[in-house]
Amino acid sequence: MTNIRNVDLNLLIVLDVLLDERNVSRAAQRLNLSQPAVSGALKRLRQAFGDPLFVRSPQGVRPTPRAL
């Protein structure tokens, strides 16, 4: 895992909204960002935490235990 000092703390806002919405497109709307921007933020979060954090499901995305 990356040192938290090197992580953009704005990514934690994206993580919080993704945990609430469980859908990248809805999270993007709520954050007033594009879907690709939220996907890019999720990619950076995955790298920082060394975990997929969310896996695709028929209902959107499902958080991993690490994300929770």
Number of helices: 3
Can you list the strand order of the major beta sheet? 1-2
Largest sheet: 2 strands, antiparallel
Distance between the termini: 16 Å
Q: Ranges with pLDDT <50 over ≥5 residues?
A: none
Annotation, overall tally of beta strands = 2
Shape: globular
H-E order: HHHEE
Helical percentage: 40-55%
Classify the secondary structure makeup into a structural class: mainly alpha
Mean pLDDT reading? 93
Report on this model:
- The structure is a single chain.
- A two-stranded antiparallel ribbon has the order 1-2.
- α1 crosses α3 and α2 packs across α3.
- It is globular.
- The protein is 51% helix and 12% strand.
- The mean pLDDT is 93.
- It is mostly helical and 68 residues long.
Comma- or semicolon-separated keywords:
12% strand; two-stranded antiparallel ribbon; mainly alpha; 68 residues
Topology:
Blueprint (H helix, E strand, L loop, with lengths): L9 H12 L2 H8 L3 H15 L4 E4 L2 E4 L5
Helix pairs in contact: 1-2, 1-3, 2-3
Summarize the structure.
Helix content is 51%, strand content 12%. The protein has helices at 10-21, 24-31, 35-49, and strands at 54-57, 60-63. The longest helix has 15 residues, at 35-49.
